[in-house]
Design a protein that fits this description.
single chain, eight-stranded parallel beta barrel, 15 strands, alpha/beta
Amino acid sequence: MALKAVHVSDVPNLDQFADNAELALSSTQFFKGVTDHGGEEGKCGYEFSKFTVMGHRGCGMNMVQSSVPRMEFLKENSILSFNAAAKLPIDFIEFDVQVTEDGCPVIFHDGFILTQDKVGKPLFRRTKDGNIFEWKVENDDPLCTLQEAFEKVENSIGFNIELKLDDQVAYTEEQLTRVLQAILQVVNECANNRPIIFSSFQPDAALLIRKLQTTYPVFFLTNGGSKIYIDIRRNSLDEAIKVCLTGGLQGIVSELRAIFRNPGAVTRIKDSKLSLVTYGQLNNFPEVVYVQHRMGVDGVIVDLVEEVTEAISDWIRLAEDRGEEGQKQVKTNPGFLQQQLSLPLLLPPELLHT
């Protein structure tokens, strides 16, 4: 099968995909917003008012050849998926933004667009083991630009905008500035009162967008050492804390396994007056989400949005029946993980160690 691979940043303009719908880069909530408790630079407290659930790429990412039907139900990073998530009791959706060669911010996760060089041009995806499959979902929808998301997605839902950059590229400050200013232009023109968070795995991008604007909080994304990079700032939670404190960032978004391997980091993060959100497949287990809430984690990014929010609703009702304050954030207690729940006995080992 002959495939054509185009790096997203090399796409000259959106018009070349305009005729192709498959390729075109075109309730009462119980979580209620965020509160900014600004402080001096390097100590910028930013607190979510309640434990917060964020929809990963909208209503959940797609996994080709997945055994979980929900992972192939709605096209990820699409208006359809974003608005489906907005109907659920969550405050934010998370999505990836890249900038094309002509300076248009588009919402797309993968670094390369894989298509067949033929009429129709269906999209393909490469799995971690290198296999390539056609990207099929039950409910397809065109991918979209950042501007379209602002214009077409329910305004009550917040955007966690991940600044997606290529790990294989050594960006100059000039290159980063061009990318970030293109994104900021759309945000400044379209955001209105929508809650916005910026996040990035690229330390320099996170630090630079904080310098370019102070209106919206910036979170540093890290896998906490699950993968080792040349840039040591990406290799541990302690390095992530340093990045945030030196650059005046507001929080950390960590791969969950890093927190479970090092639960004491939660205390260090909270003592640094930083917010903590997690991501990863483990967040699709409601019991794991509950443990994090008890540990003091501020929020989670999940794929199975409906299932997790339903479980949280059940916890709230149970707490109310007991006369408790169901949404009150408990004191950070990293020891709770070992004391109350033996995760290795409950979860598939590959999820903890891969």
